[in-house]
What does this fold into?
Amino acid sequence: MEPDEIEHYVQPEAYDLYYSWLTDDIPFYVARAKEVRGAVLEAGCGTGRVLLPTLQAGADIDGFDIHPGMIEFLKQKASGLGLTPRVSVADMRDFTMPRRYALITIPFRAFQHLLTTADQIAALRCMREHLEGGGALVFNVFFPSFDKLIRPDGEQMLEREFAHPDSGLPVAMYVTRQTDRVNQVMSVEREVVESDARGYASRTHRDRFSLRWTWKPEMELLLGAAGFSRWSVMGGYDGRPLERDTDEMVWTAWKD
Amino acid sequence: MEGLSAVPVSLGAASPGLAEGPSPYTRADLYDLLFRDYAADLGFYLGVAREAGGAVLDVGCGTGRVLLRALEAGLDVDGLDDSTEMLARLRQNAAAQGLAPRVTEGDMRAFALPRRYAGMLIPFNAFAHNLTADDQLATLRCCHQHLAPGGRLVFDVFSATPAMLATPVADPVLELETPHPETGRLLRLYDGRRLDVATQTQHSRIAIEELDAHGRVERTHRFETTVRWIYPSEMELLLRLSGFDRWAIAGGFDGRPVADHQGAIVVSAWRGA
It folds into this structure.
């Protein structure tokens, strides 16, 4: 990936703040890791938001991320918890691990940082090569909802408000999007504003990143092109069918 | 990164288990009366056939709307269609014009013709009748096999716009009204559409009304049909997976950029020399 596409991961602490509210995917990925007989690999493990709870649950999990700063921060957090994770810096399009895995996961839309078809297929192939026979790749991406597609370009919108995990003070996340509907790429400029006790802005973080959305039949073509012959998709972590365009697509693809 | 105010739109509007009524192609006579004068794509496809500079195959030639005009223009065009009724109507039309078309009844996913073609056409959204990726790939591979080296496949296919996704269920609207060429009585076509955004299929309930001399509905014929839309990136992936190594996708017959398409994309794909 180009450096500007991963700019927002340069500050791992800010990243943890941005997604402090996001926890609903953790039990799902921990459960997948615990139920398999064999090793687990997490691609795009970042600061360990999912990987550390998975380790704590006793799973045999390795991880990698493209950004050294994220891996460094993950290790710091792990040592605070008395854990020694096996994590490394690698690119999901072209990585080589010594082990083969019963399960490979790509949580929280990390797959969507792959901005071209060629990159998507390269990553899926590389994942498949690292699976044992009968192993599964599990990952989630957003469904390209009507709501997402029609958002006006270049207009700043309040995306989310949440309480700071340490202070409880309000944090507001604003995003400005540019949408390329032909290439299915959404470029996002983000401003995250922390407020003080009086409600005044006390600190502002800025970053930018791009995500590519993939339609359901298109994803099936990609999985087929990468050598997978069997897959399924759910509409959420609770296993419900994909029914609404605001559902998360949670994919499982098996290596025969 | 969920939005604050996302309003869910149901993905499964067209499914599940809608009983399929008869295909509109079973009434080739009505189809032909309604669409014989449709010409928005005609100049484009005749141009493509002419530029091919050799044998051309019209895939999904139907009642011969494009094919017979190409024959009239002296071009070497064969036809393929999977509907007996449509081909019978084509032959009638051809005989009335003193033309002798070479047409074959066959499935676009699995046909075997003796010739190799410099040009292949799939006009008027016929490709969208391929409802699954397997069907789409089979059709493209079969076309690729029938192209001469350097030959070009050209087709237009439905591609949904965000505006279409906003209204996944639409009430029947009057799409077409045309006088019967002999009786002068009106024929009307209504189409009610339901989109399934997950499978990218549009289910149409079609009603064709025949009006009497006083403008009252005399008969109503009901049909159902399903088409599958394709996004530009997905189209490129399909072309790549079916053996094409060069292609261009436009947003209309006028060659506008694909970003400006109004619900259909126009694909050109070349077989390597």
Summary: Confidence is low (pLDDT under 50) at residues 1-6, 13-17 of chain B. The longest strand of chain B covers residues 147-158.
